[in-house]
């Protein structure tokens, strides 16, 4: 009788444990998630060789006119400054004679790229 009682008790205990336990099956281990898509590594910017600075066309024109004036043996170009804006050249400074003033304007007008000359040179005797 003790054996029957022990077997009944074990079945009761098992039934109680099953009844009291969670009726839902235990969760399955989650499948490993797919790795998040890798963002494409940013491309390094294309390195270009640094460009040489482009010369200012106005300064370049003024330099050429000044060079032409200094190359003329009849004008003392040291007393003449030259500025340029969009092809128009302005001569500043002094000359010793009216002929030098006129000659400076003529030389400046013949330089390639000069579209006009504003001759602001002043005649100063002995300059």
Explain what this protein looks like in three dimensions.
The chain has 127 residues and is α/β, with parallel strands linked by helices. The chain has a domain at 57-123: Histidine-containing Protein, Chain: A (2-Layer Sandwich), CATH 3.30.1340. Helix content is 37%, strand content 16%. The chain has 3 helices and 4 strands; from the N terminus they run H-H-E-E-H-E-E. The chain has helices at 2-20, 57-71, 98-110, and strands at 80-85, 88-95, 116-119, 122-123. It is rod-shaped. The N and C termini lie far apart (145 Å).
Percentage of β-strand residues: 15-25%
The number of helices is 3
Secondary structural class: alpha/beta
First-residue to last-residue Cα separation = 145 Å
Keywords:
127 residues, alpha/beta, 4-stranded mixed sheet, rod-shaped
Q: What is the topology?
A:
Blueprint: H1 2-20, H2 57-71, E1 80-85, E2 88-95, H3 98-110, E3 116-119, E4 122-123
Parallel strand pairs: 2-3, 2-4
Antiparallel strand pairs: 1-2
Compact summary:
The protein has 3 helices and 4 strands; from the N terminus they run H-H-E-E-H-E-E. The chain has 127 residues and is of the alpha/beta class.
């Amino acid at each position: 009788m003790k054996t029957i009682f022990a077997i009944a008790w074990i079945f009761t205990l098992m039934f109680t444990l099953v009844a009291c336990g969670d009726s839902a099956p235990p969760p399955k281990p989650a499948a490993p998630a797919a790795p998040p898509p890798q963002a494409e590594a940013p491309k390094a910017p294309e390195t270009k060789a640094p460009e040489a600075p482009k010369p200012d066309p106005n300064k370049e024109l003024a330099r050429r006119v000044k060079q032409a004036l200094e190359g003329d043996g009849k004008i003392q170009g040291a007393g003449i400054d030259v500025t340029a804006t969009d092809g128009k050249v302005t001569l500043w400074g002094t000359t010793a004679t009216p002929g030098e003033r006129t000659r400076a304007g003529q030389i400046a007008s013949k330089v390639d790229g000069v579209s006009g000359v504003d001759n602001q040179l002043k005649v100063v005797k002995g300059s």
